[in-house]
Design a protein that fits this description.
The structure is a single chain. The radius of gyration is 58 Å and the shape is elongated. Among the domains are: about 90 residues, no CATH class; about 110 residues; about 160 residues, no CATH class. The protein is mainly α and about 525 residues long. A two-stranded antiparallel sheet has the order 1-2. The chain is built from 17 helices and two strands. Belongs to the MAP65/ASE1 family. One of its GO terms (cellular component) is spindle.
Length: about 525
């Protein structure tokens, strides 16, 4: 094992565990190889000499460095003394001045640091003090860097306080509140401490909560006001007073910035107006119900859907005393109006085709009357116009089968989509069209029979055959469809009769004995056209 003396020489200080392990490992290896005690002492002595040599070298180097420093210090002292001698002042005075100047700089920096820290954290008790034992440039630069960081933080807090104060003033103006009504202290505007910022943030949050509550209340009042305006058809002149604020009904919190837009006084004015409209609604409720019924029935008339009896509805309305139940009636009417509009829109394509179909029926009816008139071939004023209309009517009537098929296709598609029967003024439209098709077939057969009979009579006697009127059921079906159904028959009939061009007077007079060449040509052309029918 290594002797204690060697340990003291090799490791005069407290040995580390690793060095202890190395010595222990060396002794174990000597034991394993059977190293003689004498050889061990020689090796340890050699190690001791090596360690002492290392110490001697290190001590010599330190002595040399110390001598160099001493020479440099001596040269510096001599230089300072020479400078002081040159300017005629002792060396101690100059150094004192530099020290005082350094102290002053330290004092300014530490004072600014303490002042800014006091502004930002007034509750902080510990303050930075100047250490006279360390007045080096390095320490001064450290303090200046710390001061710069504090100034940046102060500038950031000042900007934040400015933004928060602006937000607070804006919220106060919107709410119609005096700034003195807030929970801030009188001197908080210039305070940038953590407590002042926290109080300001808390107060802004409180005002925002008030703003949200008032905004919700105002929007609810405005929604009610709009409903009442629409319900009672309030004139635009009466709405002008609140038109400027109605636009805020869907505005967000940040979009409402007008002065006193959410003040208590303004909200009270809106609330008073809503109360006034509510009272006015109670007086006009019956008129509103009548108006809504008229609107509903007008939509149903346009859609040719059966209308309701207003008298029965108004008797039921008069029997109700509760305003809530009357409001429910209005709400149900609004729903029915919406459903009627949807129904009207879904029937639009079919109704347009029915309108064209009715026009074709009117022309067909006119053409039948024209063909039954014995004086239709008389030559006179306006004859060419009548013949031109007859030609157009025949062209339109020839398209009626295709029109009927297209109308049936539309109706079938509508009934399949809606799962209901398409009724036109209370009658099934498909049934009416089927009846018309049957009637048309009967009319075609009747025409064919008349042509055959006329041809036979013409060949037998050479006289003109008497044209028989069409069967009664054919005329009735044509008039029913042309008048738009049973319930609207009278109204449609009056319109169709007034809109139909009147028959010229010369068609009602006896046939003239003298005919011009032009009359003969028109007559022959009309006969040919009649035969084609």
């Amino acid at each position: 094992m290594v002797s204690l003396k060697l340990r003291a020489i090799l490791f005069p200080f407290q040995m580390e565990p690793r060095r202890e392990m190395l010595l222990q490992e060396l002794g174990e290896m000597w034991d394993e190889i059977g190293e003689a005690e004498e050889d061990r002492r020689e090796m340890l002595h050699a190690l001791e000499e090596d360690c002492l040599n290392v110490y001697r070298v290190k001590v010599a180097q330190v002595k040399q460095y110390r001598a160099q420093l001493q020479r440099e210090i001596a040269d510096s002292v001599a230089e300072v003394a020479a400078i002081c001698a040159t300017i005629g002042e002792p060396s101690t005075t100059e150094m004192r001045r530099r020290r005082e100047e350094r102290r002053r700089k330290f004092s300014e920096v530490t004072e600014l640091i303490n002042r800014i820290e006091q502004e930002m954290k007034p509750s902080k008790q510990l303050h930075l003090t100047m250490d006279n034992s360390d007045l080096t440039i390095r320490r001064l630069e450290e303090l200046r860097a710390y001061l710069q960081d504090l100034q940046l933080e102060k500038d950031s807090r000042v900007r934040k306080m400015t933004e928060l104060m602006g937000s607070l003033h804006s919220s106060s103006l919107v709410l119609g509140m005096d700034f003195r009504e807030t929970n801030l202290h009188h001197d908080d505007e210039g305070d940038i401490s953590d407590d002042a910022i926290a109080r300001l943030v808390s107060e802004i949050g409180r005002l925002r909560e008030i703003k949200r509550n008032r905004m919700q209340k105002l929007q609810d009042l405005l929604a009610t006001m709009l409903d009442l305006w629409n319900l009672m058809d309030t004139p635009s002149e009466e709405q002008k007073r609140f038109q400027s604020v109605v636009c805020n009904i869907a505005a967000s919190e940040d979009e409402i910035t007008e002065r006193d837009a959410l003040s208590v006084e303004f909200i009270n004015n809106v609330e008073a107006e809503v109360v006034r409209l509510e009272r006015l609604k109670e007086c006009r409720m019956k008129d509103l119900v009548l108006k809504k019924y008229d609107e509903l029935n007008e939509i149903r008339r346009r859609a040719h859907v059966p209308v309701e009896n207003e008298d029965d509805a108004m008797m039921m309305f008069d029997a109700i005393d509760s305003d809530a139940e009357r409001s429910l009636i209005l709400e149900r009417l609004e729903v029915q109006i919406s459903e009627a509009k949807d129904e009207e829109f879904s029937r639009k394509d079919v109704l347009e085709k029915i309108e064209k179909w009715q026009a074709a029926l009117e022309e067909e009816s006119w053409l039948e009357e024209y063909n039954r008139n014995e004086n239709r071939y008389n030559v006179g004023k306006g004859t060419h116009l009548v013949l031109k209309r007859a030609e157009k009517a025949r062209a339109l009537v020839s398209k009626m089968p295709a029109m009927a098929e297209a109308l049936i296709t539309k109706v079938v598609a509508w009934e399949k989509e809606r799962g209901a029967k398409f009724e036109y003024d209370g009658d099934g439209l498909l049934d009416m069209l089927e009846e018309y098709n049957n009637t048309r077939k009967e009319k075609e057969q009747e025409r064919k029979r008349q042509r055959d009979q006329r041809r036979m009579l013409g060949q037998g006697t050479g006289e003109s055959p008497v044209v028989r009127p069409p069967p009664k059921n054919i005329k009735n079906v044509t008039r029913t469809l042309s008048m738009g159904g049973s319930s609207m028959g009278s109204k449609k009939a009056s319109v169709s009769v007034s809109s139909r061009p009147s028959t010229p007077s010369f068609l009602k007079s006896p046939m003239s004995a003298r005919r011009s060449d032009e009359g003969q040509m028109l007559l022959s052309r009309a006969v040919e056209e009649d035969d084609l029918l």
